[in-house]
Automatic annotation (TrEMBL):
<feature type="compositionally biased region" description="Basic and acidic residues">
    <location>
        <begin position="263"/>
        <end position="273"/>
    </location>
</feature>
<feature type="region of interest" description="Disordered">
    <location>
        <begin position="251"/>
        <end position="273"/>
    </location>
</feature>
<feature type="transmembrane region" description="Helical">
    <location>
        <begin position="36"/>
        <end position="65"/>
    </location>
</feature>
<keyword id="KW-0472">Membrane</keyword>
<keyword id="KW-0812">Transmembrane</keyword>
<keyword id="KW-1133">Transmembrane helix</keyword>
<feature type="transmembrane region" description="Helical">
    <location>
        <begin position="6"/>
        <end position="24"/>
    </location>
</feature>
<feature type="transmembrane region" description="Helical">
    <location>
        <begin position="218"/>
        <end position="240"/>
    </location>
</feature>
<feature type="transmembrane region" description="Helical">
    <location>
        <begin position="106"/>
        <end position="124"/>
    </location>
</feature>
<protein>
    <recommendedName>
        <fullName>TM2 domain protein</fullName>
    </recommendedName>
</protein>
<feature type="transmembrane region" description="Helical">
    <location>
        <begin position="136"/>
        <end position="160"/>
    </location>
</feature>
<feature type="transmembrane region" description="Helical">
    <location>
        <begin position="192"/>
        <end position="211"/>
    </location>
</feature>
């Protein structure tokens, strides 16, 4: 008798039981031990140290729970289709995928909870770096400048990054050679990376050695002016910079080739009536 997705879904509300129902004992034990082990570890650390901030780490529990739930339903579907499912833990599956070079769709979606991490797992290093940098930069500016202006950017960036990973996984898009690695990206932009590091050093010196002696109003004025100057400078650079010529697409190239061929035939007809 085949396994029911509905029963697997209901049992998976308790992490690991859905996998037990499917006969995947090792995988079920791994999920159950991870869920309750993490809960016990966080509570124990909070009780021993007396620091309630550890409770915030419990945010990982719903992520583990969701992963266990969808993993059980997905594996049930694979069993119903007649596939052979390996009874290995998720970490063992991740290690195997990294060694063998194939990418797990479930791990890609799980990593994409952090903007850019899913892209990096799939091999899109530069794309992932862009999403991750933009997301955390907006978060930093929102906290540093106390401006709600950047708040709307966070869900937009997160959703765009998440669904972009889903599209890459669903369409099985291969990583282009131009994507390169993170180290290659840094070497190609060595000058800009150096300027950013210098700017960060100046910012740290200003924050630690100058800010304590300034008034609150003056600090906000300097911060706002600094970020506004960067945005205005970047906007002027894009607006007044030279226009980038995009390469012609294959369709346009094909059309132009056909037109040239037709013109050549017309010339031949005129020369040889």
């Amino acid at each position: 008798m085949g396994k029911s997705k509905l029963i697997s879904f209901i049992l998976s509300f308790f992490p690991g039981l859905g996998h037990f129902y499917l006969g995947l004992m090792n995988r079920g034990i791994a999920f159950m031990a991870t869920f309750f082990g993490w809960m016990a570890l966080v509570i124990l650390a909070s009780v021993i140290t007396g620091f309630n901030g550890f409770i915030a780490l419990l945010i990982l529990l719903p992520l583990i729970w969701l992963y266990s739930l969808f993993d059980a339903v997905q594996l049930c579907g694979r069993l119903q289709s007649g596939e052979t499912v390996s009874d290995s833990s998720p970490l063992a599956e991740l290690s195997e995928s990294l060694v063998n070079g194939y990418k797990s769709r479930l791990w890609a979606l799980l990593f994409s909870i952090i903007p850019g991490a899913g892209h990096m797992y799939l091999g899109w290093q530069q794309r992932g770096l862009g999403f991750m940098s933009t997301f955390f930069l907006a978060m930093f500016l929102m906290e540093w400048l106390r401006l709600s202006l950047f708040f709307f950017m966070l869900p937009v960036i997160w959703l765009y990054s998440f669904f972009d990973v889903m599209q890459l996984v669903s369409n099985d898009i291969s990583v282009p050679a131009s994507e390169g690695s993170f180290s290659t990206w840094l070497l190609e932009r060595q000058r800009w990376v150096g300027l950013v590091l210098i700017g960060l050093g100046i910012l740290i010196i200003f924050d630690r050695m100058v800010v304590p002696y300034l008034s609150y109003e003056l600090i906000n004025f300097i911060k706002t002016g600094f970020i506004a100057a960067i945005f205005i400078g970047g906007g002027l650079r894009l607006a007044l910079g030279s226009k980038i010529d995009l390469p012609a697409t294959e369709e346009k190239t094909g059309v132009s080739s056909d037109n040239e061929l037709m013109e050549g035939e017309r010339c031949n007809h005129r020369e040889n009536p």
